[in-house]
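seq:
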Amino acid sequence: MKITANAGRKGAMSRNTRAYGSLLAVVLLGCIAASAQIEMQHPTGEEKNAIGVSAFIGPSLSRNAYFYGIFAEYDRLLTSKWTLGVAVDASWEPVHAAKADRSLSLTLSGGYSLTRRLSAQLLYEKEFARNGSDTNYHWQSTNGDNSVGVCASYTFWEKGRHGLALSFGLERDITASETSANFMLGYAFSF
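struct:
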């Protein structure tokens, strides 16, 4: 599951931006009918590895903001129930009509399979690059935000080595003292 780092970003969203974000979230959630994540797609059969891509969106629960993004992930099945994963993600947070703060982060996750299709994960995320108002909208390496989170995922479709999953997660940005929610749709390939 992807956790976004969004500390230090300021700016009020317009009513239209909030409406657009809310509509996008409702459409995304309505289309996928649940929440989950890529790491929920465990390797099938004898496969012990999975790679995947996901898209996510979520509101900040601490302030009037939302974010969205994509990430690529690798998961390794350690035992029949436990997984370990690493992901790189890119996220955007609109700050006003023409600008969005952007960040790149590295996420480490550990997961446990509650059932064949339902899993739970604990995550740690570290932001390592930022392009936003605090960097004059130029990419800069940064010792950015530190976040921790918890996620629940459900694999709703599997065919051979391919799978689709939905997830819902809660994140706490330790650096900025902010909390946010994540809704994710992901594809995984097991090998």
